[in-house]
Design a protein that fits this description.
Elements lengths: L20 H7 L5 H6 L11 H14 L13
Length: 76
């Protein structure tokens, strides 16, 4: 196991666990309870609003060289 290899005050070990919402639920299970206890910092990102999503897509399309709208607004 990586966390047991030469672990002392001189060789700290840090890792980032990134996943879907199921990762949080799975760490709560009995088999992963020890891992869950060792997680020091948790952060959960919320989803983007429709406006934020549109802005994000437009920005990345501009970075890729796309000018103008790619999609039309269904509710003008």
């Amino acid at each position: 196991m990586l966390t047991n290899h030469d672990m002392d005050s001189k060789t700290p070990f840090a890792t980032a666990l990134i996943g879907q919402p199921t990762l949080r639920r799975r760490t709560k299970l009995g088999g992963l309870a020890a891992l869950d206890q060792r997680i020091a910092v948790r952060y959960q990102m919320t989803g983007m609003t429709p406006e934020e999503t549109g802005s994000y897509i437009r920005h990345h399309l501009q970075l890729a060289g796309r000018d103008g709208d790619l999609f039309s607004d269904p509710n003008p």
